[in-house]
Amino acid sequence: MHDAAISRLSKAVTYATVSNRDESQVDWSQFTGFHRFLEESYPLVHKAFQREVVGKASLLYRWKGTGKGKPFAFLAHMDVVPVPPEDLPDWKYPPFSGYNDGTYIWGRGAADMKVELIAILETLERLIGEGFVPTRDLYLCFGHNEEVMAEPSGAQQIADLLKERGVELEFVLEEAGVVMMDPPFGLKRPLAMIGVAEKGYGDLEITLKGEGGHSAEPEGRSVVEEMARLVTALYDHPLPYRITPTVETYVKGLAGELSPQEREALSSREAVCQTLRENKKTHAMVRTTIVPTVVRAGMASNAIPSEAAVLVNARLLPGDTMDTVTDHIRRLADDLHLSARLQMRVRTQSPPPPETPTDTPTYGILKEAYRLWDERLLVVPYIVTGGTDSKHYTQVTREIYRISPFRSYAGQPSGAHGKNEHTSIQGFLEAQTFLRRVILMENSREA
Fold first, then answer.
1. Residues 6 or more apart from 244 whose CB is under 8 A from it?
2. Cα distance between residue 227 and residue 236, in whole Å
3. What are the domain boundaries of the chain?
4. What is the CA radius of gyration of the chain?
5. Cα 444 from chain centroid (whole Å)
6. Cβ burial, residue 388 (10 Å; 0-12/13-18/19+)
């Protein structure tokens, strides 16, 4: 049974479901082929669930329950990021081979996130085969363009459709928090994290205008130098660090595992901020980050440009907006006497979704499922510093849990979005055990 499941995961990775903001550049045959593969590989799922294609290639499944409790949903995305041609020589195995070396499945999308999508379907196929019937509706929502933040996104289209149909979900379960086997702060127990909050996202273009000229006759500071000073100021003067409700609960969850001296170091909000900001695994949890990612200036080596532009990416803490970011940059520019020549344009923005409380039945079930999975685990809520498709579902649910039940070890990166992406076969099987428990435990209570 396990061998067949592993083979199906390997096969799933062979579909080059690469997304692109320019849909004319997408090979849609890879997505339709992947859809057929799912239908052929999971016949019981496709008999029990109603399936429909939403948008270009997203999938929405519904399994009607026997009762009237509120439904819930599992989210995943089918798309993967591209593999740059120049990286191919550095791959241990071809990126869309799905190679199985007995320990890992190798290939683009193996870790992000076909392993989780296939684990969901494997779990359901087995439950259906055992005669399981849900007491409330269960939805599967599989997006097709999560990696490129496309507009419209498949996830947004699915969520809009659910709202149009009057569907109100009790909760959605999405990718993110892993099980850290080498946790921070010297913790002795593995740390299982449940993402109950997520940072927002924004792209801001900053343009500075000045006097151009010939490079042989420079006069004063060029716009390149001035923009460099502004970028340096962004690094030297970040937005203030602060504690959100989720981070406060995260720290309280850790406190019982720390020594008296370590607890003393977290005795005030200021001390918590200082401790978290000094750890590379947690520093982004306590501030809105602003990072320059694209720089543009000049066209010729012998000409001083009259304009310089920088694209910065902001990840917003709950409570912050892109106005927070632009106001901060404007203050820095004022200090450098650049404001009169500075222009800012928000190109993309997605506000932070509301934080999910941790005193809910489902949060308790997730904690219990983790403890049954591995009794050593310390389970805590946290804020996801990246972005997920789950933000689109706030219109149909108030509870979003971002969780990936896979063990993560320091010094053993999965290669997600990079070279030699791979996923653990043992982790794939363990994830199914976890998901099975969650489904059965949710099914045994009234929502």
1. 197, 317, 318, 319, 355, 383
2. 14
3. 2-197+354-443, 200-350
4. 24
5. 30
6. buried
Instruction: Please give the pLDDT value at position 45.
Output: 99
Question: Where do the H-state alpha helices sit in 28-142?
Answer: 28-41, 43-48, 115-129
Residue ranges in the chain modelled with pLDDT below 70? 1, 446-447
**Is 3.30.930.10 the CATH classification of the domain at 200-350?**
no
| Cα 14 from Cα 96, distance rounded (Å) | 5
Cα Dmax for the chain? 82
Instruction: Give the tokens for residue 30.
Output: 């890879």
| pLDDT tens column, 187-220 | 889 999 999 999 999 999 999 999 888 888 888 7
Phi, psi of 387 (to 5 degrees): -125, 150
CA distance 252 to 264: 12
Beta-bridged to residue 18, according to DSSP, are 80
440: tokens are 């059965």
Average pLDDT over the chain, rounded to an integer: 95
Structure confidence at residue 141 (pLDDT): 99
Residue 140 and residue 59 in contact, taking contact as beta carbons nearer than 8 Å: yes
**Domain at 2-197+354-443, CATH from 2.40.128.110, 3.40.630.10, 2.60.120.10, 3.40.50.150:** 3.40.630.10
Residues facing 171 on adjacent strands: 72
Is the pTM higher than 0.85? The answer reads yes
